[in-house]
Amino acid sequence: MSQALRIGLAGLGTVGAAVFRLLSEKSDHVTARAGRPVTVTGVCARSRDRDRGIDLSAVTWHDDPVALATADDADVFVELIGGDGDPAYTAVKAALSAGKAVVTANKALLAAHGVELALLAEANGTTIGYEAAVAGGIPIIKTLREAVAGNRVSRVYGILNGTCNYILTQMEEEGLSFADCLAEAQRLGYAEADPTFDVEGNDSAHKLAILSALAFGTKIDTDSIHLEGISSITQDDLQAADELGFRIKLLGVARRTETGIEQRVTPTMVPLSSAMAGIPGVLNAVAVDGDEVGEIMLVGPGAGSTATASAVAGDIVDIARGSMRAPVFGIPAAGLVDYKPARMRAHEGGYYIRLAVYDRPGAFAAIAQRMAEQSISLESIMQKEKPDKQDIKARHVVLITHETTELQIRTALQAIMDDGQIEGQPKMIRIEKP
Ligand code: HSE
Fold first, then answer.
1. Is the dihedral of CA 304, 149, 210, 319 positive or negative?
2. Is the whole-model pTM more than 0.85?
3. Positive or negative, the Cα torsion across 10, 16, 19, 23?
4. Whose CA is closest to 241, among 351, 393, 386?
5. CA–CA dist 195, 200 (Å, integer)
6. Would you say residue 398 lies in a domain?
7. Same domain for 283 and 161
8. Which residues contact 94 (CB under 8 A, 6 or more apart)?
9. In the prediction, which pLDDT does 347 show?
10. Residue among 285, 237, 244 nearest 429 (CA)
């Protein structure tokens, strides 16, 4: 049997402990798949004394992640510390500079420094496995990097955050408030340390930025992603969507357009009949449109310790076998082209609009007139009952438009607001068709 692959494991939180457990409890299975034993030789974490339910007596404890990353008795550095800065950043760079392969679940680090790290890996003849960084246990990185390599990809999109999908599902199915559902997601361990990263879309944006680079061969540009979270979604929106044949999901969408690459993370209406609408709870789903294969969709757990450990173990086995040969982002990092953003206002699609319209003669006619001026064709109109509060003079009206552009919608809504026909701000949600 070949020599063991020796692992330095940095970070022993829920995912790190699950990776350690998987590699030790299933060592025969992993050895068979890897073609040689895989042994954790060193670890590091913030607290040495914490009981994690794993036996660390046979491994070397390091207080400094950089020392572990460059230790002579480790071939691969597994980074499960998290965060886009230090200590993860410096430790990963140290490992790559020493020619060691890196396996990481750290989407924030790759979203911020992915191209620089890929260049460093390739300059040192090594690689970075990051299957666990995007959509937990779903093998979307391998799919984009290898399986659909013969395709020109036009769109990659999906549900990239388990916490948000769990919250939206619970709100819809149980009629619970956003806050109650978020608290439950945190209790179940799905949410990030700072849950605003989940609910405001930043976590999905990190993942989308990585997918976009892989799909389109562009440099990562997380800051250009148009971001809207789910904290403003109400029971009214969920019910109206359902009555109109849609469901609201937080989608990350990256699409090749004539003006550049469109990247957005926004609450999005998907038809109830679509596969994306049927993805419940903490599951993630990622769809890829390729010119040869058509649309494929992968579904699975996007968060949780064992699902993430599964992806980490898959990368380790690939490295042990010597089969992780493709460049980090599918093409050599030096060949990634600058990301050119699409004009968001040129985005074409259908839209859901919710307006609080004053209950007085001519209000509807004026709204229809403003829509017509922008050549916006309406697919359906639904008038909701007046809200319970007696002092509210407006009725909720929900409109679904046929295909139009974001510029036309925004122009019409601004004119409607200027006319004084509605109370407060209109709510606009994009519709994404499969
Ligand atoms: N907080 C993330 C989620 C975990 O809810 O999907 C995995 O990135």
1. positive
2. yes
3. positive
4. 351
5. 8
6. yes
7. yes
8. 66, 69, 70
9. 73
10. 237
Closest atom, ligand 1, to C-alpha of 198: 1
Same domain, 196 and 126: no
Q: What is the CATH number of the domain that holds 177?
A: 3.30.360.10
Q: Which residue is closest in CA terms to ligand 1's atom 4?
A: 303
8 A C-beta contact, residue 10 and residue 70? no
In a domain, 320, yes or no: no
- The CATH number of residue 105's host domain is 3.40.50.720
Q: 341 in a domain, yes or no?
A: no
- What residues contact 70, with CB distance under 8 A and at least 6 apart? 94, 95, 98, 100
Same domain, 22 and 111: yes
Q: Which of 133, 162, 195 is the last residue of a domain?
A: 133
Q: 200 C-alpha to center of ligand 1: Å?
A: 12
Cα(167)–Cα(187) distance, rounded to whole angstroms?
12
pLDDT at 97 over 70: yes
The overall longest dimension of the chain from CA atoms, in Å, is: 84
Across 202-245, the runs of DSSP E, i.e. the strands, are 226-227
153 and 235 part of one domain: yes
Catalytic residues: 207
pLDDT tens by residue, 281-331: 999 999 999 999 999 999 999 888 999 999 999 999 999 999 888 999 999
Ligand 1 closest atom vs CA 284: 6
pLDDT over 90 percentage in the chain: 77
Residue type, 120: L
pLDDT at residue 391, rounded to an integer: 53
389-414 burial, b for 16+ CB within 10 Å, e for fewer?
eeeeebbbbbbbbeebbbebbebbbe
Range of the domain at 195: 140-301
Pocket of ligand 1 (CB under 6 A): 136, 161-163, 190-192, 198, 203, 302-303
**In 3D, which of 152, 405, 150, 114 has the Cα closest to residue 259?**
405
**Ligand 1 nearest atom to the CA of residue 192, by list position:** 1
The CA distance from 397 to 380, in Å, is 11
Give the distance (Å) from ligand 1 centre to CA of residue 283: 10
Question: Checking DSSP bridges between strand 422-431 and strand 348-358, what pairing results, if any?
Answer: antiparallel
pLDDT in tens, 375-407: 999 988 888 765 555 555 778 889 999 999 989
Query: Into how many domains does the chain fold?
Result: 3
Q: How many other C-beta atoms lie within 10 A of the C-beta of residue 332?
A: 12
